[in-house]
Amino acid sequence: MTAATLPKPKKRKWRSWWLKQFHTWHWISAAVSLVGMMLFAITGLTLNHAASISASPKTVQKSGLLAPGLRPLLANPKTNDAPLPPRVAEAVERAVDLDPAGRPGEWSDGEVYVAMPRPGGDAWVSIDRASGAITSERTDRGWISYLNDLHKGRNAGTAWFWFIDVFAVACIVFTLTGLLLLQMHARHRPSTWPLVAAGFLIPAAIAVFVLH
């Protein structure tokens, strides 16, 4: 049996298998998290320089009137934070182009107020329970504010909440498999561990010695 036909040592077979697995999970997690990492990196910069990035919020106010037949639906809310009745919410949306359906209301003797915060802006609707007068306001702070709020998960809803969790798991897989790949190739790349150590020690030193 020649050297070319000798079976590979078991250790080399296992190393090749693990190397293949790490590469596979590394590129899959990179593909899943690529766009998200770009978004969070860019918004990390915009958040860090928020004071120097000017924004001009735009505010739109509208008003309307609830039909007399719908006003009795505001008479007896089930709780102090009950949402608007569905028919009232539909009427409000038609009148002021804001949808308060399903959102908790703040009920007082004279009015019901519904806050509708969202990424990059804010909105609210107020209804006079006696006269049916509808007042609304919508504020838009622009695309940079919108992306910054997505970065923070501010008022972004349940779907975005779960996206952040999935994205975070993908990033963890990406970084851990990257670290394991570094370990497997470090023997041929002497600068590997000094660079990894620098990536840890620099932010740690800033946090310990600079931040107070």
Automatic annotation (TrEMBL):
Keyword Cell division attributed: no
Origin superkingdom: Bacteria
UniProt KW Transmembrane keyword: yes
Pfam families linked to this entry: PepSY_TM_like_2
Keywords carried by this UniProt record: Membrane, Transmembrane, Transmembrane helix
Membrane-crossing segments per the record: 25-47, 160-181, 193-211
Cited PANTHER family: INNER MEMBRANE PROTEIN WITH PEPSY TM HELIX
Protein name: PepSY-associated TM helix domain-containing protein
